[in-house]
Structure of Ubiquitin carboxyl-terminal hydrolase:
Amino acid sequence: MELLRSSLSRVRIPEPTNRIYKQECCVSFETPKSEGGLFVDMNSFLAFGKDYVGWNYEKTGNPVYLHIKETIKPVSEDRPSKKPTLLAIGIEGGFDNNEPEYEVSYEIVILPNYVTLPFPSVELPEKVRLAVDAVIMAAGAERKEQVSAWTADKKLVSKHAMDLKQLDNGVIVPPSGWKCEKCDKTANLWLNLTDGSILCGRSNWDGSGGNDHAVNHYNVTGYPLAVKLGTITADLEAADVYSYDEDESVEDPLLAQHLLHFGIDFSSLQKTEMTTAERELDQNTNFDWNRIQESGQEVEPLFGPGYTGLVNLGNSCYLAATMQVVFSTRGFCTRYYLDQNLKMAFDNAPADPTVDLNMQLAKLAHGLLSGKYSLPATKKDDAGDTTNSTLTAKQEGIPPRMFKSVIAASHPEFSTMRQQDALEFFLHFIDQVERINAGNPNFDPSRSFKFGIEERLQCPSGRVAYNKRHDYILSLSIPLHKATNKKELEDFQKLRAEKDAEGKELSADEIVRPRVLLKDCLDCFSAPEEVHDFYSTALDARTTAIKTAGLTSFPDYLVLHMRKFIMEEGWVPKKLDVYIDVPDTIDIINMRSRGLQPGEELLPEGGDSGVKLVASEDIVTQLVSMGFNYLHCQKAAINTSNAGVEAAMNWLLSHMNDPDIDDPITNEAKSAPQYSDIDPSKVDTLVSFGFEEELARKALLASDGDIEKATEWIFNPPSGTSHMDTSPSSSTAAVDAVLPDGDGRYRLIGLVSHIGTSTHCGHYVAHIRKDGRWVIFNDDKVGASKNPPIDMGYLYFFERIDS
């Protein structure tokens, strides 16, 4: 007891604002149910498993811990089920899964010698009793986050919804091509329901997200309601409506009416859902479900290292499927498992390891890859006696709660219990990993997915322009007209017509889907494409240019995204009901882009100063019909060289607030900055990054001397701009020197499949090639796959075959 009294200064009584962890270890997946129980630090209120509590003592010197141990209670078979009061599973008030009840025991443990004192005990100092009672009575931080995520979906009707003022300004919102009106953001965009402004969302703490333009617009105008673009589907209740005045997500019962004001008509959308094609898709849902999950088949359960399932936290299958494939790649396995043990990650973590992405990635990696948690679940007898227990064919899996909490901190949508798009999650995850490894790019595993894309534009003069960007996924259109089973499709169309005439519906077995080769999808990406109304500086005239695209580097892992979800006219979402025939290996060497070639000549930077470019009347007319100012539309067409409506609209949305936007169009050339105006020290800085001096000067000239913007310009030049110089390979080498590269031969190692009519509903499942066989990862279920649905993938993961 004296030892405890001497450590009272390191004991804290928790305050209501303190986060108390008592359900799961911060660095492992140990719980109070684990053999060693859980140790709660009575100073920081962080929890640690038996094998890890010593690390915390070494790091912090905190000696006093509350040890929590849960043991199963014997339960009678006729225990009545509790009535749920919350749409959730596994939390208080949620559905009763008939999980066993546990008896909880507590004791005080003093490190480093693990001296134990019983609790409760009147002999304990009052401060200790008060602190322990507060910890026991408090809801754990893990449980608080879980409940918060579920209850976050309970939206109230906004007080502004029923009498919302909408301006009659003629704004018509197109179904795609959105961009923030005040910056270049194309994601996290919000449509203001009063004036139709499209603006980016809030900036997150780490610099990601938007630039606060939507909320700033509210602060200036007072227009309270906005809906997030991309969440508008046939299910209007799922649309994300936010009230800036009420500062929370709300429900708008008149959302359909408010959207119709801006040309988004849902009457046609509702009708389309009842078409024959949609009914067939609904009929196929059960087939998809069984095929992708391999339901009805005897799947051999697998256990051991690399075969650990992930518990579904509530519509978190998008996360589980994606992370299973990610941690089957060498880069992530090496970075967060082989080269970094848990002790190293914990020592490098901040005071609270639960908010450190590196720590939680290491924790998740060790949980998935060590095999420690991939064991058959133990089924005890009715009395809870482990001596008579049996092993079940199912494993318990590990719950990725802390990882989900950290990765969602900079993307609020992932913190909810709603289904999310696996592609969007993958890109957000890769972005966050790249950020935390920015200071040490050689150890950044996200680089293994990164590659360069180069677009080549050639006008009838024979001269060319090149644009470059980086990406982590190759998004492919699906050419249905190249289906390989056209005869079967023709027969199916005849059968469908006969059934329709008889008033009968087709059965799932009778439906025939198009089959398209993956090679044809890849060919579509690099196939020549006409760009109409392209302004050629060589011809000083509008013309038709030919655009082709290729890859400047081949990544270690190539992720192919199949565009199965498209938005048709009238905002009608459609899922392409199609099979993709994917071979085990592919060779994309023909997709290599090599930049400016000998004999090619770049388009000049500007045309004859005496010739005035005239705006395309077709482009201007279409933009005006959307509600934009006529003069602004003319300027947009001119400044994009009449490249098309989408390019002009993107320019218009990003230049709406330019101070000279309302100035008349003149033929006078502005005095352009010269190379002599550039700060030589900034040129030297970019050169030190590995860029050519001429390229550095051009980037700084285009970016008003801002180094950060100049670097972004090099990697992602504006549309229609070329930064290719005299050397055919100079800029290609400068931009892509740090990217992995090799031959264009790849082997399929995994796929993420989706069941459902939208990426924001349904279910995701992963299939991964491991140890020479295909394995299905369906949340916490892991087994040998007998018939992997390779032709039904949404995301395909290929590994480059090294020579």
Summary: The first strand starts at residue 38 and ends at 41.
